[in-house]
Every structure is written in C-alpha cells, then in structure tokens.
Design brief:
With 204 residues, the chain is mostly helical. 81% of the residues lie in helices and 0% in strands. The chain has six helices and no strands. Helix 3 runs antiparallel to helix 4, helix 4 runs antiparallel to helix 5 and helix 5 runs antiparallel to helix 6. It holds the Pfam family FTCD_C.
Length: 204
C-alpha cells in the first residue's frame, strides 16, 4: 500500500525532490489526515449539525491536497533554472553579468513556489481548527497530528524562501517575500499551536 517512490527519490543524491518538495508532501499528508477526520465524522447522527460544514471542509482539503501534490513538481521545476544559473560560467565580465541576470530571474520562482506551499499549508491548518473542534472525538488525536504536520510543512517551506531571498539583488522584492513569509508563519503557526494545545488538553 505504501508508495515509496517519492521517499526513495528524496533520499537519493539527486537535488530534487528536496526540502521544498518534502514540505509540499508533508502538507499533503496533513491535508489527507485532516480529511480522514472529516470522513469519520460525516454520516454520524452525533455530528448532524455540522455535517454540511464538514462536507465543505472535505472539498477544500481535497483541493488543497491536490495543489500541494502539484507543488512537489512545481518546486523541482523552479529549482532547475536556479541550479542552471548557479552553474553558469563566470570567467569573463560578460559571462558573470549573464550569470547574475539568470540567477535573479530564477530566484523569483524559487521564492514564489515555497510561498505558495506555505499558503496551502495555512489553509490546511485552518481546516484542522474546525476538524479538531467539531470532528469525531474518536479521531481527535489525528486532527492534532494533522496540524503538527501542517505546521512542520509551513516552517520547512519557509526555509527555502529564506535562503533564496538572501541572494536577491532586488532588496524591495526580497523584503516583500520576507514579509509574506513571516506573516504566513505568524498566522499559521499560532493557529497550529492553539489547535495542538487544545487537543493535548482534551486528550488529558
């Protein structure tokens, strides 16, 4: 049942998938686990009052999960021109200038993709807030595990943003990316911590 292809590729010396792809994968796992909580909730008389909202959350989680899986390849695609730029010749002034220009172009997608991964992870965390509060109590620990995974994915994706903005010549763009990254960490991290603390308290 377990598909190890991605894990084996991640463990290899190949540069992709790397940290960004792993972040997206972890976010997809978090989404799947939160969906399990929802699927264990629907159809139960005890939760009839929240049935409609659970169904809506399941649809949102599915969309987020599919997007995160796409972003595994998206991260690899963004890394390719970045790696190519770093590998360009710099033995003449003209070559060095061309290398710097190519690098600056590649750095944009190398920041945009992990930021999108972070946004998707925040959406997963938001769904976990609902699932932990209103989902089946039998799956409460799963809701907690999902939010922990989602926060880990959020933070790990942020590291790709951090390393790439450090090489940006456009300091205004770099600051904008940093601000977005920090806002996402603040929003998602606080929510995730609150959900985890609440789950731990209820589990005793």
């Amino acid at each position: 049942m377990v598909d190890t292809e991605f894990i084996e590729a991640l463990a290899s010396k190949a540069p992709t998938p790397g940290g960004g792809g792993a972040s997206a994968y972890a976010g997809a796992l978090a989404s799947a686990l939160a969906s399990m909580v929802g699927n264990l909730t629907v159809g139960k008389k005890k939760y009839a009052a929240v049935e409609e909202r659970v169904q809506a959350e399941l649809l949102a989680l599915e969309a987020t999960r599919l997007r995160l899986l796409e972003l595994i390849d998206g991260d690899a695609a963004a890394f390719a021109p970045l790696a190519a730029a770093y590998g360009m010749a710099r033995d003449t002034d003209e070559a060095a200038a061309a290398q710097r220009a190519a690098l600056q172009v590649a750095l944009v997608d190398a920041c945009e993709v992990p930021l999108e991964i972070m946004r998707q992870c925040v959406q997963v965390i938001e769904s976990c807030v609902f699932m932990a509060k209103h989902g089946s109590v039998l799956a409460l620990s799963d809701a907690g595990a999902a939010v922990v995974l989602a926060k880990a994915a959020l933070l790990s994706a942020s590291l790709n943003v951090r390393i790439n903005i450090g090489s940006m010549a456009d300091k205004a763009r770099a600051k904008a990316y940093r601000d977005q990254m920090e806002d996402l960490i603040a929003a998602g991290g606080t929510l995730a911590d609150d959900v985890y603390a609440g789950v731990v308290e209820r589990l005793g």
